[in-house]
Amino acid sequence: MEDTTKDTSPLPRGKSDSFYGDRSVVMSARLLGSIKANPIINSLYITDIGFYPHAKNHYRSRSEGIGEQILIYCVDGSGTVQIGGSEHCLDPNTFFVIPAGQPHAYWADPSYPWSIYWLHFGGERSLSFASFYSKVMRIKPCTSSRIDDRIKLFSEIITALELGFSRENIEFANMCLNSLLATFFYVETFRSVRGFKSTDPVDKAIFFMQDNLHATLKMSDIARHVQFSESHLSRLFRSKTGSSPMDYFINLKMQEAIRLLTNQNLKVKEVAFALGYDDPFYFSRIFNRHIGSSPGSFVRVTRKRPA
CB of 222 within 8 A of CB of 208? Predict the structure, then answer.
């Protein structure tokens, strides 16, 4: 929720604002204690969540911050987040995460008040996304945005908690939090899993690799496809993935090799040819280098595992 201070009573804290059509759920101190003791969800959990539509006169100021991260997702209108002596404007399709313990204020634009989905989340893993915090993050709208899917997931979490604070409802909502945060922090992947193609050059390179697992691509082929120089693409690629383009391509091939070996029951020689390797022995050496065992050994071990 949006209160300035945390209540230590076991009762829900409620909320001081009332916006027509708003929804919010707040965890009591007692309930938070049980969440923090639950190993299934205690590394990343929700403390407060809600939706404020056309939130005229919405304002918060906290001189010492709070103990959790605060995510504000603006879907309409506009507002301002003040943090670290700077003001950041949020308009539709932007979000901002205020780090735990950071003094801040935020407010709706008086003429064009924002509609926001908001979330307070904590736990040790919440600290792992710090690179996304303290700055306006824009989600570019397009036909592949999946904005409705993100909002639906937000709504499902709120609904699960509104159904009552049973252990099952609490665990379901907090496990869904992982997926919800992924829609913000891994936008391109969130879109790509539905088959939407990204315009990012690294993503375009990866899609090109996936479409050509049967081929023997060179770095020049990949660079030409995305219309970047080899050196520029290599720098971008390593920065985003931690790998060189060619190593990434080989790893994609090895993932496909595993699928063909285990699901299609193909022979090693057949898999090698299917992935563009004319020499099965060379393919086996590459497989061993990247997977840690020969193709034959991998298949034998995999077939011994229970289904």
Answer: yes
